[in-house]
Amino acid sequence: MSEKIYAVPEAWRNEARVNAEKYDALYRRSVADPDGFWGEQAQRIEWIAPFTRVKEVSFDTHNVAIEWFGDGSTNIAMNCIDRHLPHRADQVAIIWEGDDPSLSRHITYRELHEQVCRFANVLKAHGVRKGDRVTIYLPMIPEAAYAMLACARIGAVHSVVFGGFSPDALAGRIEDAQSDVVITADEGVRGGRKSPLKDNVDAALEKVSAKTVIVVTRTGAKVDMKPGRDFRYEDEAKKVPEDCPYAEVGAEDPLFILYTSGSTGKPKGVLHTTGGYLVHAALTHELVFDYREGDVYWCTADVGWVTGHSYIVYGPLANGATTLMFEGVPNYPTVSRFWEVIDKHKVDIFYTAPTAIRALMGAGEEPVKKTSRKSIRLLGSVGEPINPEAWEWYHRVVGEGRCPIVDTWWQTETGGILIAPLPGATALKPGSATKPFFGVQPEIVDANGNVLEGACEGNLVIADSWPGQARTVFGDHERFVQTYFTAYPGKYFTGDGCRRDSDGYYWITGRVDDVINVSGHRLGTAEIESALVAHEKVAEAAVVGFPHAIKGQGIYAYVTLMGGVEASERLRKELVDFVRKEISAIASPDVIQFAPGLPKTRSGKIMRRILRKIAENEFGALGDTSTLADPSVVEDLIKNRPAG
Ligand code: WT7
Question: Where, per the database record, does this protein carry N6-acetyllysine (predicted)?
Fold first, then answer.
């Protein structure tokens, strides 16, 4: 572990909104008096009906209920757009940078208002009402933000599905959300390659049904249009009025569903609501990134993930920021692309993922150094633990040693950042997400639920609610309770392991459940296993994560074939493609080991601990193997472990 400490630079300390003393005092107040603290912070957004109650929360396993600002009402699109019009109608709200470096667009708040109103009217014309679910399967184009905000404007609930997901994965999400309307594009474009989004929707809708598909034109490719079901967005937009009044939405009315993987079963539809979510996203965006009036802010995530929801769209726009939306990838056309975009648009704040940093680090310093990056003031990291080497490189090479790095820990379920430095207040330690944000009470517990004190390591739980917290799993509150509130009753269980050092800094050590984090993408081992066993030649499969130099974790699959089926290189490729088709390219196994049997206890439980060790190449550390039903299985696995 890195022991290096980077003190807050003097200029930052002097100009800090929140310095170290203020952080300590405010933090103490925020946990001692959450109603007082959050009641004040909530004034940063505009309410339609003011709230009189702040926090009403029960983490009791028998009755998990989470409400913030429960009797207030507002509208998120109004907060992200209309509220800014009197003083920043001509300010750029969204800079869109296309995959092709010669394409970019600037959308002002006035234009954003018009576009979102039109989109909202198109949805209304197609029967979308308050509370209805709308599936958004779009590439990184401004229409993705318009569509999200259009839903928010009329009180509909969006479910954004990452454009990299397969037709099957999309179908499952449309069905679970009971969504009648799907918004897509003809094609997506990333890294110079096209992806057939509309065709994928067609394939998904052979399995599940939706009444309406709205197709945005991105490339102009010819796509099948099913009469009565499929509509061109551009045609529909011409038929509707330019203005659309915003709906009054209860603070606890749903804003969006976002599917995320867990240890078991199918991805869960994590549900976020309105008032608390926006307060949390906007406040963290301002304080963690030290967002200042006039800054150009760039988060490189995709809107298909929660990072894109909270820190491309809602947080920045609620703060009246200029947010950059990037269609492409870090290495196209060259590995200098990120830095060139920073120079092109004079980006002040840059937020990306460790996997991208590690991949670019592999290309050396020259592609970075040939760009200026003078505009950059602050760097952020999210999605997985950042190893100190990558942190140091990001700091020294990208930030030229002058930009603080905010390593932000949070989750789809947390809605916004929970543990991160405040750049004017917190000394940095490479690899540590540092300290809790206001109102956040992390605790480290042992396997028996004892709360550990001082320097320690264990599982990370959060002792009390925060406004951006997910409220339920869509359609399955019991699963919400089971997943997050039963392991450590009365506390929210994050699924992460964590160490706290003697300075009170938090170091996330990674997932402790059967979730793996591949390039910052969260996947359930169970999901990949069920994709594998769906293949006719596979009898049994067990999937574990293993350390991967660029992706953070890679996917290691142990596969037992049906009797009589011969293992071969061809079958290996076939299985990788099969998983890709069932879920997504991000779920493709890096290693498949064919095995005659899997290590099991006498009661038939697969011993994953052993499989993890073999995948990590740590044969000496297999631990207790005395409960194995058949020890020879393990010997075979070790003997036949593929090289690498
Ligand atoms: C999991 C949540 C946060 C939005 C993107 C991912 C891991 C996330 C960090 C970080 C160490 C991190 C955790 C967490 N994670 N950020 N800064 N340091 N680990 O959201 O897909 O819901 O994944 O990502 O393991 O539980 P997500």
Answer: 605
User: Phi, psi (5° rounding) for residue 348?
Assistant: -90, -35
Strands of the sheet containing 492-500, edge to edge, are 451-452, 442-445, 456-462, 492-500, 506-511
Please indicate, yes or no, if residue 551 is contained in any of the structural domains. Answer: yes
- Residue nearest atom 5 in ligand 1 by C-alpha distance: 383
Q: How far is CA 575 from the centre of its chain?
A: 27
Strands (E), 357-402: 378-382
Tell me, yes or no, whether 437 lies in a domain: no
602 within 8 A of 623, measured Cβ to Cβ: no
C-alpha–C-alpha distance, residues 303 and 487, integer Å: 31
CB 383 within 8 A of CB 409: no
Binding-site residue ranges: 190-193, 307, 331, 383-385, 407-412, 496, 511, 519, 522, 533, 535, 538, 580
> Hey, whose CA ends up nearest to atom 14 of ligand 1?
411
Q: How far is the CA of 384 from the centre of ligand 1 (A)?
A: 5
Listed residue (52, 316, 98) closest to 190, CA to CA? 98
Given a contact cutoff of 8 angstroms between Cβ atoms, the answer to whether 514 and 573 are in contact is no
What pLDDT does 2 receive?
52
Count of CA atoms in the C-beta half-sphere (13 A) of 519: 13
Could you tell me the residue range of the domain that residue 543 belongs to? 519-640
pLDDT (tens digit, 9 = 90+) per residue, 597-615? 999 988 888 999 999 999 9
Is 451:443 a contact under the CB 8 Å cutoff?
Answer: yes
Find out whether 141 and 96 touch, Cβ atoms under 8 Å: yes
Which of 250, 273, 302 finishes a domain? 250
Q: Give nearest CA residue, ligand 1 atom 7.
A: 384
Count up the domains in the chain and report the number.
2
* First CA to last CA distance, the chain: 25
For the domain that residue 609 is a member of, what is the CATH number? Answer: 3.30.300.30
Q: Using the mean position of ligand 1's atoms as its centre, give its distance from the Cα of residue 284 in Å.
A: 16
Contact indicator for 310, 289 with CB cutoff of 8 Å: no
pLDDT (tens digit, 9 = 90+) per residue, 497-531? 999 999 999 999 999 999 999 999 999 999 999 99
C-beta atoms surrounding 555 within 10 Å: 25
Mean pLDDT, 10 residues at a time, the chain of 644 residues? 85 95 98 98 98 98 97 99 98 98 98 98 98 98 99 98 97 98 98 98 98 98 98 98 97 98 91 99 98 98 98 99 98 98 98 96 97 98 96 98 98 98 98 98 96 98 98 98 97 98 97 94 94 96 95 96 95 97 96 94 89 90 82 91 81
SS3 255: strand
| The predicted structure's pLDDT at residue 605 | 87
Query: Considering the domain boundaries, does residue 376 fall inside one?
Result: no
Pocket of ligand 1 (CB under 6 A): 260, 305-307, 382-385, 407-412, 433, 494-496, 508, 511, 517, 522
603 domain residue, yes or no: yes
Q: Kindly report the backbone phi and psi dihedral angles of residue 143, in degrees, each rounded to the nearest multiple of 5, phi listed first.
A: -60, -25
Ligand 1 atom nearest 420 alpha carbon: 17
The domain boundary, picked from 201, 234, 250, lies at 250
Tens-digit pLDDT profile for residues 406-455:
999 999 999 999 999 999 999 999 999 999 999 999 999 999 999 999 99
Closest-CA residue, ligand 1 atom 19, reads 384
Q: What's the 410 CA to ligand 1 centre distance in angstroms? A: 5
